[in-house]
């Protein structure tokens, strides 16, 4: 729960609000046009309205084939999107607009990625350092974690796998219920107590930054 957050009475409308996407992407004739699965598709309606027309090409295994790996550099690299390689994954920080969880998931999928999953303390620490280096250590960031299928049983939507490593803020997840009846079913990163970016459950309709990933 976000302490001091005002109850939201227009959340349903917010869940389908279009957002203007930054022009960060190399033009390509191929790329995923898929929306987020399940409830996300219902909330988003038809088509990826939040994403720019230029798409990213994907390889035979669905990897993002036209993305910049900032850790390697531009010359001679197959990536043409600003990603940072940390371990076996590449990450994109969605910091040019804020979106609800469904829209953020759609945006990542449209560009051949997924909302991030975090599987170790090492991965969490590296991602936190990357976010802090951008001066955004006190912001909120969506991950793919959710318990929409079963209350209290969180899993990574990006992989379908249950969460094994955990890094929750103290007292979380608490599934706080707001005056409008909405509960907290989506996982964000948040430096709530000044103790680093830890996990918090939040209403999926809240709009915030997000982290995409690709192998």
Distance between the termini: 31 Å
Name of the CATH class: Alpha Beta
Average pLDDT for all residues: 74
Whole-number radius of gyration?
Answer: 17 Å
Structural class: alpha+beta
Give the H and E element order.
HHEEEHEHEEEEE
Shape: globular
Annotation, overall tally of beta strands: 9
Percent strand equals 15-25%
Biggest sheet statistics: 9 strands, mixed
- Domain module tally: 1
Q: Uncertain segments of ≥5 residues (pLDDT<50)?
A: 6-62, 69-79
Percentage of residues assigned to helices: 10-25%
Number of helices: 4
CATH topology: Mannose-Binding Protein A, Chain A
**What is the CATH architecture assignment?**
Roll
In the CATH hierarchy, what is the superfamily? Answer: Mannose-Binding Protein A, subunit A
In short:
15% of the residues lie in helices and 21% in strands. By secondary structure, it is α+β, with helices and mostly antiparallel strands. The protein is globular, with a radius of gyration of 17 Å.
